[in-house]
Prior knowledge:
Layout: H1 9-18, H2 28-46, H3 77-81, E1 87-88, E2 91-92
Helix pairs in contact: 1-2
Amino acid sequence: MEMFMSIDENTAARVAKLARIKVEPDALPALAEEFNNILGFIEQLSEVDVDGVEPMTSVTPQRLKRREDVVTDGDQQDRVLANAPDAREGFFAVPKVVE
């Protein structure tokens, strides 16, 4: 299997820094190898012929349960706003955060 890209220790250190992950120098060779394994797996996936294959969300055909789109307990504005520390004119009032 020929890889299209190879990650060396310097690149692994840069990726770790960008991801804000502390990696000790002696762990960099293993991290670089793991990145290369991941890239190799991605390369294997790119070789799979998926022409004509429909995207799927599950390995078994299924349809999500559906319900009517109706309001069942609306018109409770006063009760909802009763929980607010500050409500004005039928809305939650919040402090100004942008000058």
